[in-house]
Specification:
Length: 264
């Protein structure tokens, strides 16, 4: 196995071991209701959201750009326990998505975790909202869940490298995922920094992977404008998965927005 394969597989295993919260899934299940819905899970990863939705009777199609994440999801599908769930490899930035869905999910803070390649970060975020709109039937809903904090630059000034995760995968590779030095510009809301993976395969051959990370943290005002421009009306709004009340503070916004039904 190449170092790239060892790293990608370790990363996908880390995700499934560590990112297994489900409060957003409980909220989503209540929004979808009891009747089976056709759901597009954008950037489905290892199926954290798609699989419980399938288990609840919904018809779910997922896509993701990462083959190692999809391989883990496919392994779940191969058990035969999720007959209403399908998955495909797709870069959400490359062309139109499948359409006709009752609900489209941009969950798990996807807006801030997009792999954008050469595409401008903010343009990619807006494109995902437009593609989500196109993928819905008229009257269908977008589930959007993202971190939304008006960080002052000072909050980032003394930031030191820190170990975000350390785990061992199924093949016995131990690794540490380190968030390195970074800079945040409160004007552009763009964070640039280094990500470091220190990996120790079971049979030796330790190696380190370093990558630059660039992320744009959209403001609530940005997202509201983008949603309106695309043609969504926000019907339900949550802060930290609780109904938003006037002045409620929190860093996670989740919303359920409807695609308008065309006038004939
Ligand atoms: C934080 S994970 C979330 C996975 C899953 N939705 C969940 O709730 O656990 C982000 C996922 O987005 C995928 N992703 C990022 N950019 C993408 C793109 N341009 N097209 C398709 N998938 C993408 C990554 O491969 C990764 O699996």
């Amino acid at each position: 196995m190449t170092q790239l394969e060892i790293w990608e597989r370790w990363d996908a295993s880390l995700y499934e071991q560590q990112e297994n919260y489900r409060h957003d899934i409980d909220l989503l299940l209540s929004l979808l209701g009891d009747k089976p819905q056709r759901v597009l899970d954008v950037a489905c990863g290892t199926g954290r959201m798609a699989l419980p939705l399938g288990r609840a009777g919904h018809i779910v199609h997922g896509f993701d750009v990462s083959m190692p994440m999809l391989a883990r999801m496919q392994a779940h599908l191969n058990t035969g326990e999720f007959p209403s769930v399908t998955v495909e490899h797709r870069d959400g930035l490359a062309g139109a998505w499948p359409d006709g869905f009752d609900a489209v999910l941009l969950g798990a803070n996807l807006l801030c975790n997009l792999i954008t390649g050469e595409t401008d970060y903010m343009a990619a975020q807006r494109l995902f909202l437009r593609r989500a709109h196109e993928a819905l039937r008229p009257g269908g809903h977008l589930f959007l869940d993202f971190d939304c904090v008006d960080w002052p630059t000072s909050a980032w000034e003394d930031a030191q490298p820190w170990v975000c995760f350390d785990v061992t995968d199924e093949r016995g590779t131990y690794g540490r995922y380190i968030v390195g030095q970074y800079e945040y510009d409160a004007g552009t809301r763009v964070c640039r920094g280094e990500r470091i993976w220190e990996l120790q395969p079971k049979d030796g051959g330790d190696f380190t992977v370093r990558k630059m990370s660039v992320k744009h943290f959209p403001s609530w005002a940005d997202v509201q404008t983008w949603l309106t421009d695309v043609g969504f009306a926000v019907e339900k709004l949550y802060v930290d998965c609780e109904p938003a009340e006037q002045g409620r503070e929190g860093c996670r916004i989740t919303l359920w927005a409807r695609k308008a039904v065309m006038e004939s």
